[in-house]
Design goal:
The chain has one domain. It starts with 8 loop residues before the first helix and ends with a helix. The protein is mainly α. Helix 2 runs antiparallel to helix 3 and helix 4 runs parallel beside helix 7. It has ten helices and no strands.
Length: 203
């Protein structure tokens, strides 16, 4: 008998791998690394690890939010560099892997209207942040604008996530574990909704 595999099987494996890092003695470095690489390549948002680590040590919520923000904003510079210098090779491979070609086109139009708000929106919401950072390099937007908008958006998001765990406790993580597939669908709907909102605003 064939074993039924959830459509979110690989996402679940990525999630479990990320979650395991929270129990490592090097968890803060893992958090920084995941936040850094998610800004250009890694598919699982660093919120997963941030939630697990904060749930385990709620008194360190502020420190973990700072680490996550720093890693993500510095990772944005890597994404920018890929778009600026390596788009024809690495950049296109990332965009094709995550099927973000149309998203990149929409983002390019939005940059012409308000680059700061475009970066901030993606930094704070489920819109793929890697699409923002790579396209920032492709369309040569101002680097200070990318950094400042990323800092405001990412800090707002990660401090809200970490602060929520500090207030409401580890129950949130247990709920996510129990209803992972449902949360994955909700996240996907939010992702599509954010993209459609961005496209509508551009059109």
């Amino acid at each position: 008998m064939l074993r039924k595999i959830s459509p979110f099987y690989w996402l679940r494996r990525m999630y479990n791998w990320t979650l395991r890092q929270s129990g490592s003695p090097h968890a803060p470095r893992a958090l920084f690394g995941v936040a850094f690489i998610e800004s250009s390549v890694f598919p699982v948002p660093p919120d997963v690890l941030l939630v697990a680590m904060t749930a385990a040590k709620r008194e360190k919520w502020l420190k973990y939010a700072c680490i996550c923000t720093a890693g993500s904003v510095l990772g944005a510079l890597l994404g920018y560099s890929i778009g600026f210098f390596l788009y024809e090779t690495i950049g296109k491979w990332i965009i094709n892997t995550y099927n973000l070609r149309e998203v990149i086109s929409v983002i390019g139009r939005k940059y012409g209207e308000n680059a700061f708000f475009t970066v901030f929106t993606a930094a704070f919401t489920p819109i793929p942040y890697k699409a923002i950072t790579i396209s920032a390099g492709v369309f040569r937007i101002s680097l200070p604008v990318l950094v400042c908008a990323s800092l405001v958006g990412r800090a707002g998001r990660f401090f809200m996530v970490s602060g929520s765990i500090r207030i409401f406790g580890a129950g949130i993580q247990k709920t996510v574990e129990k209803y992972f597939d449902i949360f994955s669908v909700v996240f996907l709907i939010m992702l599509i909704g954010g993209y459609l909102l961005l496209k509508h605003a551009a059109g």
